[in-house]
Design the sequence.
């Protein structure tokens, strides 16, 4: 019972952190979530399915309407707080200076041109991906959207398990609570789910999302000395966009 309770708490904590769903916190949920990386893709599956509801209209409604519905649904379910990571990353990308200077920019609450451009490109890219989804059959569109969400959350779990934090903060709370061995369970869950639907384009969307997360992860390791909370947020957004576009491309070329 204690194990079941810990898993329930971990999922509840993950829902509270990764979505805007009205899930009440209980003592210990945050710690259980940080120590249970498998909660990332599990919540990704649930959130992705909810966000994909507007895609049920792909064969009935105009593509721009479906795309707008998908875009609004994604942020209604997952919130916009992860876009703050994109904004801070955008400012850090354009700043001149050393590692410490980039870290200072990430902590700065001022919104610069880099932040505005990065958020604009990210939201526009997701909207364009939504247009691509609107041209797919219903099941394919939903599969890509869900696959992208699961993949980007699995990538975040990988960052928590095998990444190292640049300094104390949100990122370090995840990396200190998880270990490389903690990645086994989420990997098994994701691979099992992917095997069941192969060769559905949602599988390639999942892979694309994981690959997309590698971009900010690599940059952070090279130019920040490790990951932090902003990189987690930015990776979530970039992974989703990469997954959606790869899934659409895969279906188009099949």
Sequence:
């Amino acid at each position: 019972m204690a194990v079941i309770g810990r898993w329930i708490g971990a999922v509840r904590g993950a829902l509270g952190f990764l979505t805007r769903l009205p899930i009440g916190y209980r003592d210990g949920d945050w710690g259980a979530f940080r120590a249970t990386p498998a909660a990332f893709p599990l919540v990704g599956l649930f959130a992705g399915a909810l966000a994909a509801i507007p895609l049920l209209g792909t064969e009935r409604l105009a593509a721009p309407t479906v795309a707008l519905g998908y875009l609004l649904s994604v942020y209604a379910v997952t919130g916009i707080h992860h876009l703050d990571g994109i904004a801070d990353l955008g400012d850090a990308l354009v700043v001149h200076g050393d590692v410490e200077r980039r870290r200072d920019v990430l902590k700065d609450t001022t919104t610069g041109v880099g932040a505005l451009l990065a958020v604009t490109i990210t939201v526009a890219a997701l909207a364009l991906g939504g247009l691509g989804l609107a041209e797919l059959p219903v099941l394919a569109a939903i599969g890509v959207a869900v696959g992208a969400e699961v993949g980007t959350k699995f990538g975040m779990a990988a960052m928590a398990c095998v990444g190292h934090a640049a300094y104390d903060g949100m990122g370090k709370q995840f990396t200190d609570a998880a270990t490389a061995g903690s990645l086994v369970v989420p990997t098994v869950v994701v691979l099992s789910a992917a095997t069941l639907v192969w060769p559905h384009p949602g599988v390639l969307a999942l892979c694309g999302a994981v690959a997309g997360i590698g971009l900010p992860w690599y940059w952070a390791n090279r130019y920040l000395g490790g990951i932090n909370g902003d990189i987690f947020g930015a990776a979530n957004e970039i992974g989703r966009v990469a997954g959606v576009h790869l899934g659409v491309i895969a279906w188009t070329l099949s």
Remarks:
- Residues 48-253 form one domain.
- DSSP finds twelve helices and no strands in the chain.
